[in-house]
Amino acid sequence: MRIYVSAKPNSKENKVEKISEDHFRVYVSEPPVKGRANYAIIRLLSEYFAMPPGGVRIFRGHLTREKIIDIFL
Question: Which GO CC annotations does the UniProt entry carry (predicted)?
Answer without folding.
Answer: cytoplasm
